[in-house]
Each structure stands twice: as C-alpha cells, then as structure tokens.
Amino acid sequence: MVRERQKASKTYVNRSLLAYINPHGSISEQYRTIRNNIHYASNGSKIQSLLVTSPSEGEGKSTTTVNLAVCMAQRGDRVLIIDANFRNPIINKIFQVQTSPGLSNVLGQQLEIREAIYNTEVEGLDILPSGQRLYNSTELLDSQLMIDVMQYASEQYDMVLLDCPPVLGVPDTNALVGKCDGVLLLLQSGKTQQEQAIEAKRALMFAKANILGVILNQKSV
Ligand SMILES: Nc1ncnc2c1ncn2[C@@H]1O[C@H](COP(=O)(O)OP(=O)(O)O)[C@@H](O)[C@H]1O
Ligand SMILES: [Mg+2]
User: Which residues contact 165 (CB under 8 A, 6 or more apart)?
Assistant: First the structure.
C-alpha cells in the first residue's frame, strides 16, 4: 500500500486544478471529454499508463495532466501522476509539496517508490514528484529501474500519468515512450508552429509511440 507521507494542504487549492475547483464548469467538461475519448481511442486495448508531452515548454502539458488526472480520479480510478520533467518540475508546486524526494531518488536507489509518493487532497489521486535534477536523467529513465517503477505503479493504480518534458530537444521523453501504453501530444493553439507539431509527431513515431491523440490547448486570458 502507498504510505501517506504528507497530505497536501487542504486549505489552499492551486488554480491550475480547475477540474477540482469547478467540476461543473465548461472547461472541466472538456477535460472529461478528453478522458472519455482516451478510452475510445484505445480501441479495446487496456490503457493504464499515459505519457503527456508537447513540442516545447509552456504549452500546457502539466496543466492538462493534472486536470485529466483529477477527472479520472473523480470517476473512481486510483490515479498516480509521475513528474518526469526534471528540468522544469511543477507537479509538486501544484500540490504544494517538496520537489524532493521523488522519482530521481527512487531511480538513484535512495528510497523505495512507495516512500516517495504523496497522497493529495483529491480523493484517489497520488503524486510522485520529480526529485532533484539529474544530469544522467536520460540513462536512468531508460533503465530497468524505470521499468520497475512503471510496473509497481501499474500494479497499484488504475491509471499512471507521466508529465514529461518537451519531446523536441530533450531526449528524456523518448526514453519513456516505450514504457507507456499511450501518448498524448499536446499543441497550443496560436503558439505551436506547424513544423514543430510535425517534427514532434515524427520523433514520437520514431520511438514507436502509441499516439492516442492530439490535444489542442487554448490558454484563456
Ligand atoms: N488552458 C489553459 N488556460 C489558462 N492557462 C493555462 C492553460 N494551459 C496552461 N496554462 C498556463 O500556462 C502556463 C504553462 O502551462 P504548463 O502546463 O506548466 O505548461 P508545460 O507543462 O507545457 O510547460 C502555466 O502558468 C499554466 O497555468
Ligand atoms: Mg510542465
């Protein structure tokens, strides 16, 4: 069982968690539609782990990951978010816990994965922060240890979401593609260039990603 090491604060809810703050709003409805479409896109095969990426930084990967995770937990699933973005970790900030210990410490064999997982105030939703930045992150993400992490997570949770770095320019994401059942490619309306989108898809296909679909994110002002 997952040990409850520290509960995220119940008094402060990060505004990124719209699906939690305002579950009946139209934006939450759209996240639920994406959640349901993931199910349909799987074509009958079991999707238990999902990697979320985009061509570059700031396009909304983490925001989408946390809101999808909330919607999945609201459906009754046990959900784990793994922050696999060592360069720009944000999941811990959204849930107000420390960056470390986390995935990097587990991969560095400093502690067991269950010791690094936090319960959150969202019923059914746990998180594994990134841990401190690694300089050999790609090698560790490409290792048997990471396969073991995914194996453990799949045994304990109905769905595992990996919040990843951009797929272009950072090799970490492609090291994880083959360890997940499906990939969601996120593009930002008005920001992502067409060439970047094509290049990102090409890079993911090269790594043999099972791209379930593309999410077009539009930032509200
Ligand atoms: N749909 C959206 N509406 C409003 N703000 C958004 C939306 N998506 C992302 N943002 C904001 O944009 C910034 C970058 O988003 P983030 O999810 O951290 O991007 P990434 O993980 O791709 O780097 C954050 O401040 C986030 O709150
Ligand atoms: Mg991010």
Answer: 53, 84, 85, 86, 87, 88, 172, 173
**Residue 53 beta carbon below 6 angstroms from any ligand 1 atom:** no
Residue predicted with more confidence, 221 or 169: 169
pTM of the entire structure? 0.94
| C-alpha 60 to ligand 1 mean position (Å) | 4
d(CA 64, CA 45) in angstroms, rounded, equals 23
Instruction: Read off the pLDDT of residues 28-78 as tens digits, 9 standing for 90 and up.
Output: 999 999 999 998 888 888 999 999 999 999 999 999 999 999 999 999 999
Q: Please report whether residue 11 resides in a domain.
A: no
User: Could you tell me the residue range of the domain that residue 139 belongs to?
Assistant: 18-217
Nearest CA to ligand 1 atom 25: 58
Cα 58 to ligand 1 centroid, rounded to whole Å: 6
CA dist 219 and 221 (Å) reads 6
**CA 48 to each of CA 11, 159, 181: distance values in angstroms, whole numbers, following the listed order:** 31, 5, 6
Does residue 13 belong to any structural domain of this protein? no
Residue 8 in any domain: the answer is no
54 lines ligand 1 (CB under 6 A): yes
Distance of alpha carbon 86 from alpha carbon 35, whole angstroms: 26
- Mean predicted lDDT score pLDDT of the chain: 92
